[in-house]
Amino acid sequence: MLLNTAQPYAIESAGLVCGFLCLPDAMPHSVDAAEALAWLALPPEQTEGFIWLHLNLSQASTERWIREHLSLPEAFHESLHQASRSSRVEQEGDALLAVMNDVLFEFSFEATDISTLWVSLESRLVVSARTRPLRSIDRLRDAVKKGEILRSPVDLMVRLLSLQVKVLEQIVRDAVIEVDNIEDRLLAERLQNRRVNLGALRRVMVRLQRLLAPEPAALFRLLNKPPHWVAEQDVVDLRQSTEEFAAVLNDMSALQERIKLLQEEIAARINEQDNRSLFVLTVVTVLALPFNIIAGLLGMNVGGIPLAQHAHGFWIVVAIVAVFTATVAFFALKRWRS
């Protein structure tokens, strides 16, 4: 039975989104901040399993509560304020520190729809913290609420990575459908104002890969020398999740290259259309040139203008202009067809 020994201040200022006591062979059950602190205060030999606390850093007092009530490595607190948000997993003493990037719960293919999740893992305590709701961690929380068993802290990370892989696979799948539609329109000559869509899509893919790409390499380094409390099965599962993650990143790279080629094709077609429009404008200007020159010459108020007194002078001038225009049009159309 858990003792409620924490002060009310600890409960109110924790910024706790959810808390679970996870036992190896039993369904997790929810705990609040006071119960979690009371359980952590017990000697390790009197307890089994681990506590998972998921915190909301957008609440101003959350970080202060973490410092006052949880003994986390200093590197965890420093990572909360580092400018670099690249995904990585590092070992600090007996703890594992993870900086992971994920998409927001309401992801809409915008570069700003990506945020960071910080995780600290020890043998008895897992702390995850974020500033904005994220899709993968929320799916894991829902699964645990429904009774999914977590064997260990590393098993929690493995489940989180697997969910993140599924989220990224769905993002890539949706992006491929969008690119397929754009490509079909391009081949059918019905493409209208689709360059912006491709640019935004490519920007999101590049940002996702840039933030997530370091993660597999960091995990492989960790797998070579894990902490002593990490079970061998957890290492195997973590390695498998890392390989799945690398495969998704490769698919993302291939999609980026495809988007780049489509952008180049669209740019080439737009340039061709612009060149044709400019050529037509030039031809029209050249065709009108004989009219302008002859009309300007005959319109001068000076003596000696030819054919001024001729009975058929007007039609003679029209015939001369028509011959010049027809000659210019012939050479222009010949070049157009070539």
From TrEMBL:
Keywords carried by this UniProt record: Cell inner membrane, Cell membrane, Coiled coil, Ion transport, Membrane, Transmembrane, Transmembrane helix, Transport, Zinc
Residue stretches spanning the membrane: 278-300, 312-333
Membrane topology: Multi-pass membrane protein
Major location (coarse): membrane
Keyword match Zinc: yes
PANTHER family: CORA FAMILY METAL ION TRANSPORTER (EUROFUNG), ZINC TRANSPORT PROTEIN ZNTB
Protein name (database record): Zinc transport protein ZntB
Protein's organism: Amantichitinum ursilacus
